[in-house]
Hints:
The complex is a heterodimer. The relative contact order of chain A is 0.12. Chain A has helices at 17-24, 28-55, 72-79, 82-113, 120-133, 137-146, 152-159, 174-184, 187-198, 202-210, 215-243, 247-252, 266-275, 280-308; strands at residues 58-59, 67-68. By secondary structure, chain A is mainly alpha-helical. Chain A is globular, with a radius of gyration of 27 Å. The N and C termini of chain A lie far apart (55 Å). In chain A, helix 11 (215-243) runs antiparallel to helix 14 (280-308). Chain A has a two-stranded antiparallel sheet. In chain A, strand 1 and strand 2 form a beta hairpin. Chain B folds into 2 domains: 2-59; 70-279, MetI-like (MetI-like fold, Orthogonal Bundle). Chain B is 73% helix and 0% strand. Chain B is globular, with a radius of gyration of 24 Å. Chains A and B meet through helix 1, helix 2, helix 4, helix 5 and helix 6 of A and helix 1, helix 4, helix 5, helix 6 and helix 10 of B.
Amino acid sequence: MTTLRTPAPPRPAEPRAPRRGYRRKSQPEAFGFLTPWLLGAVALTVGPMVVSLYLAFTDYDMFTTPHWVGFGNFTHMFTDDDRYLRSVEVTLIYVLVSVPVKLAVSLGVALLLNTRRGTNGFYRAAFYAPSLLGASVAAALVWRALFTGGGPVNEVLAGFGWHTPSWVDDPNFSLASIVLLGVWQFGAPMVIFLAGLKQVPAELHEAAAIDGAGAFRRFRHITLPLLSPVIFFNLVMEAIHAFQAFTPAFVIGGGRGGPADADLFYTLYLFEVGFQDFRMGYASAMAWVLLVVIAIVTAIVFRTAKLWVFYEDRP
Amino acid sequence: MTALRVPRTARSVGWHVLCLCGVAVVLYPLAWLAFASVKPPDEILSRLALLPSRFVFDGYSKGWEGAAGVGFGRFFLNSFLVAGLSVVANVLSCSLAAFAFARLRFRFRGALFAFMITTLMLPYHVTLIPQYVIFQQAGLVNTFVPLILPKLLATEAFFVFLIVQFMRGIPRELDEAATIDGCSVYRTFWHVVLPLSKPALVTTSIFTFIWTWNDFFTQMVYLNDTEKFTVPLGLRLFVDTSSQSDFGAMFAMSALALVPIVLFFLAFQRLLVEGVSTSGLKG
Lengths: 315, 283
């Protein structure tokens, strides 16, 4: 038997050849599968983006043909439109405050829940729930009531001797209540942090503890560096979303930007300009500025990532 | 032994107390809403206590009457219709695109995939106005088409990405075996890969439902007639009200609006939480 098994002539190309051909040639079926997505990408994403870039340089009211104004919309925005600048200010404050606070809270709760006791499934679910509910109009209506003049929040604060005005009606407090509504939805980044914390090897902590490192030092020098890619991811995602917040500002601000335009978020003003005043050219210009700002912020975060994001495989 | 045990139990108790306090704070607004919906109107804003002095269900009956002659039941029906069709459209179109990206070879595959990932970060507003003009020209404003058609065309890259990631985890040997047995690519997709992707498809369905149910901006832009209103738009009618008598109705309908999400959450919480932690979905 064995003698019959003469060594086969070396055919190195054979096992790979069909695979290579398979790889090189497009499968015609692929475009069948891709058709809906491709249609959407062309007709609802790329096409509209090109059109919107064009409209950004025009006056357009939807009923007459667009009228080319060059950079007019952009110069008007930054030199002549106080409400626009107000919306930029409100949105930047919202992003700069709500994102770090939300990340800190979600990381704190994730650290609290990351124990070896088996019972954190319930807590994890309970802390996560507002993430799903909080973006709704219903939650924003509740928020408005909680932070109103004689509402529960003020009553609790009065119990501590702090007397606060009706948050939602006060230009200085209104935005804070919206920030808190954003922070309340910390569940999604918390769940992502928890998944990241599970990856931190317990041996590192044990070894450091034996060497006499306290809880804080272990957090600072083991957990934080190993978690930095997750922090980076959450930071980028939360910032992108915070720039586009709309529903809470609309509802809590009563649909018009709140007291003294304290809740005039960027998207709210864009909606007003585009769909109430029908200044679609100006609204398109605003949308492109938003896109550019988000792109710049993301790029900055990516650039600085080298300094503080630690990848185990890339020391 | 006991000397060591006591502090450990004490720590455990302390941990639970801390967690429960956190849960109480976080869930308080929801409990507040549930009880506010059955309080007498004059107690809603004036009392910190959760429990009402007496249970009143007037808010539900008054709220259910709706506005401008259109009942709130109609708003719920519209919301269920939009959310339900969105789920079907999204699962179908996203799984088709995902299969192509995960399993098939075609030109520009890498570039198209990178493009899809980029659209994840694109603010919706950049395409909003031309899309609106397109639908307006086509006479489709004030119908549900602008809300559902984008989902039929897989514009929600999140879900394509989610399903791609999942399909990559399915052993390739399975579809190779099917191909050797003479399955066409279509049958391999339908009978092998799709059934195995069920967890990803369920996650996609649940998130699509919840996000569509909560969506306010798009629905406000495209729907004008009260007849066509969805639940968030129905609730929006309360935004300007300041009369106390409407508070009961407002909170009763708000509570009802959250019921489907709470039910979904209770039924699928494990899957939802895992969906978030593996794909980084925004909840």
